[in-house]
Design brief:
about 110 residues, mainly beta, 4-stranded antiparallel beta sheet, 3-stranded antiparallel beta sheet, 1 helix, about 5% helix
């Protein structure tokens, strides 16, 4: 007897990837949160700490996608966040993403 396939239901999980233009990845530990939302601390050209509210995308391991709120030229504070208050002038030490994720100090 032939099978009638028209009444069968099929369920499938299909990847629904989204493409974000100009999205950036930052270490998750660099993110802060307050009543205004999620933010990153970035440095101005004269090394003043600034708070930037950001829109988050997907997380991948220890990295978080930032969809908007910062640019590729921004220097993101990843260590000593408790001492880096907005408006404070700092003496930054550049580190690699790998160092930031592992918690290494310069």
């Amino acid at each position: 007897r032939p099978r009638d396939w028209s009444s069968d239901v099929c369920s499938s999980d299909l990847p629904m990837g989204r493409t974000y233009e100009n999205a950036l990845m930052v270490p998750t530990l660099a993110l802060g949160e307050d009543q205004g939302g999620r933010f990153l601390l970035v440095l101005s050209p004269d090394n003043l700490v600034q708070r930037r509210y950001v829109q988050l995308g997907e997380a991948q391991g220890a990295m978080q996608m930032i969809v908007s709120g910062i640019t590729a030229d921004d220097r993101v504070v990843v260590g000593g966040l408790w001492r880096a208050a907005p408006g404070t002038r700092v003496n930054p030490h550049m580190i690699s993403t790998e160092q930031a994720i592992s918690g290494q100090r310069p």
